[in-house]
Amino acid sequence: MKRALVTLLVLLLAASVFGAGGKVAVVLSGGGARGFAELAVFEKMEEYGIPVDMVLGTSMGALLGSLYSVGYTPGEIDALVRSYDLTNILLQAPVEDPFPLPSAFAPRRDNIFTLGFSKDGIGSSPGVLGDQKLLALLNELYANVEGITNFDQLPVPFRAVATDAISGERIVYDHGSLVTAVRSSISLPMVFAPYPQDDGSLAMDGGLTDNLPIELAKELGADFIVAMDVNALQRLTPKEMNTFSAVAIQSLVLVTQTNSLSQYEYADILLFPEVGDVGTLAFDRYEYILQKGRDICDAHDEAFRNLAKEVEAAGRTLEVKDPQRTGSYVTIAPRTVEKVVVRNRSTTTTEQAPTEANFQNFIGKSFDDQERKELTAYLDRIRVSYQLSSITYNVTMGSDSQHIVLNIEYHTFEVPQYRLTLGSWSSAGVSNNTPGGVGWFLFDAMLNLDLTSLTEKGLNVRLWFHQENASALGASVTLPFFSKGGQSFGMHSSVELKYGGLSLKTNYAYGNRYASLDQGVDIKTGANYRYADILGVDLDGGLQWVYVNQSGSHLFMPYLSVGMVMDTAREKAFTRKGIRLDVLASYGWGGEGTNRYQSRVSIRQDVVLKPEHQGLRWALSANHMRMQPELSASYVDIGGLCGIPGYSLATFRQDSLTASVSWHLRLGTIFGSPFFIVESLSGGLFNPEDPFQDSVLSSGVFSSGIDWDVGAFSGVAFETPLGNYGVGLGLSVKGKFSLVIGVYD
């Protein structure tokens, strides 16, 4: 009796999906980038007019198959793949590195890596790749059908397969959020983090349980099944399995092959494209992979021809379709946002979290292409600001068919208590105005160890070692007295020991430099205010001592300083949006009753003209420096990669007023790293004295006169995991020129 009821239930389910007989299902396997070959299946089906009544997919097969199910044509899918840089979208850090504000005029130096750890383990995420850009892409691709939560109501019924991360059981998605279904299905272990579900569970890649769900298609009533397994011919040689990643990926491939083998016999057409030589993450080989898919489909022309006859004999009408036609997806009209709901889909909580108030501006607006793009850009900024793993949205129907509810969902991991960061900065070049030489080369390295929340009061300790012109070893302690709503107020103290090139003529960019044997100590204490790691204010009192080896002089200076920094451009990307404002004023007492002081202000804004492709930056800076004239830190550098074009690094001045504007355009990728053409124009007013010639100012602003120059820079920049590097040629109106390579701040 029980068996009869189960059989009846399966038959009813199949009838609800397929209706009458002669129904055709397309089943697509997972396999990472190899899955591009599966597009050829839809091309061939339409070439012979074979109807597609359901698409079932796992992992990459779910992603590609879902596009056909929502109404994209093969031609439109091909165009979509070509228009997106999938390497850049998929190869993203799982969590943005914490972005603690630097002090005023101090650059950020943690560009090589950040490693979080605590008593619970090492790492900031259970996956090596992030999914923010992927989720944004899925939302964009499915936007017109996001209100459809029953997958049988899509233009072509759809099923995606994932795996329960705890029980190991297969999950079949037939309703809910299409973004959740596909994102869960592609959660490749160790690559992407398991994806949170509505019931609080986690889902992993469907390939772990059912990489080619042919039997599922049969259970749902498919009479004819066309399946492609892009992993079937995937084999690594013993020589190739000499790395951890290669062994890990091969292990996963073996699992997917094992759970697929027993299902092959149920397919009417079974396709194995020759993509065994393609890596799982080789998204830059799209043309090659797609052609391999077309080759295997062409080799089975006779099988497709016979299938078409069988389908027609079963009472179905064959309809040959133009793959370049306009699909049904684009005809779906946008709806109006009626309400916004925000919820945390994480297993952890975060002290600072977005709320419905962050998204009030979207209520009442038509959720069209422009509005979706604005929401996507806004979510990306929210992710960085709140240190989230991902933040995405899905859409459910509102009070009527013309309105929708926007469901904002974010995911975060517990912030590690301890953090080790490594950064570097470098600059090299040649010019006709390098102090004491014709060129320069500098490489700086910075290692920081942050220990946070060491006490209930929130005591934080930072230890650092910096190798710049001088080696520096330091420690700081910060204790917040008040912390609420993203704001904090506290006290801090620090001590730093230095050894090496502190004085002007030991600078590494100076061709006739002396031996770097200076010594120094800087001790300071003060109060600080922070707002959401966007705004910081520091009030300090300190004592600085420097021993200048070349002259044998001891420089003592007690001082007071106030600094402010505001930075909303909290991204490492070359094309970014935001403003950074730095203000610094300090007053000290030098030897023999000499007053030492400085006042500095700088502002720059990054504007995105086209996301990830084109941007504009403008900057203004004003500086008035009357600090210890023997020390390099007492001057502003107006040269180098980010200075006035044509001027060498270490073009030190005490008074300056500069302005610049630069434009960049993405040209493509090299070895997976985006590269840009960069054009900039910069110039300014500055005092004529050159401190390397023992000529300095001691009185008012521009007291000895004003020099000026304007230059143009043309070059290229590369956005890499180790920082944004630029190389190019600068030439000024007054005949200064430089060829420079270095890291952009």
Q: What's a quick, concise take on this entry?
A:
The chain is an alpha+beta fold.
List its traits.
single chain; 745 residues; alpha+beta; 16-stranded antiparallel barrel; 12 helices; 31 strands; elongated
Describe the protein's architecture and organization.
- The termini are far apart.
- The N terminus is likely disordered.
- The strands form four sheets. Strands 14-15-16-17-18-19-20-21-22-23-24-27-28-29-30-31 form a 16-stranded antiparallel barrel. Strands 1, 2, 5, 6, 7, 8, 9 and 10 form an eight-stranded mixed β-sheet that branches. Strands 11-13-12 form a three-stranded mixed β-sheet.
- The chain has twelve helices and 31 strands.
- It is elongated.
- By secondary structure, it is α+β, with helices and mostly antiparallel strands.
- Helices cover 19% and strands 38% of the residues.
Alpha-carbon Rg, integer: 31 Å
Structural class designation: alpha+beta
Q: Roughly what fraction of the amino acids lie in strands?
A: 35-45%
For the largest sheet, list the strands in their spatial order.
14-15-16-17-18-19-20-21-22-23-24-27-28-29-30-31
Main sheet makeup: 16 strands, antiparallel, barrel
Please render the helix and strand layout as text:
Layout: H1 2-18, E1 24-28, H2 39-47, E2 54-58, H3 60-69, H4 74-83, H5 86-90, E3 113-118, E4 121-122, H6 132-142, E5 158-164, E6 170-173, H7 178-185, E7 195-196, E8 202-205, H8 214-219, E9 224-228, H9 244-261, E10 269-271, H10 286-299, H11 301-313, E11 336-344, H12 369-385, E12 390-397, E13 403-411, E14 418-431, E15 439-451, E16 460-467, E17 470-484, E18 487-500, E19 518-531, E20 535-548, E21 553-567, E22 578-589, E23 595-610, E24 614-626, E25 636-637, E26 652-653, E27 655-670, E28 673-686, E29 707-720, E30 723-732, E31 737-743
Parallel strand pairs: 1-2, 1-9, 2-5, 9-10, 11-13
Antiparallel strand pairs: 3-4, 3-14, 5-6, 5-8, 7-8, 12-13, 14-15, 14-31, 15-16, 16-17, 17-18, 18-19, 19-20, 20-21, 21-22, 22-23, 23-24, 24-27, 25-26, 27-28, 28-29, 29-30, 30-31
Helix pairs in contact: 2-4, 2-10, 3-7, 6-7, 6-12
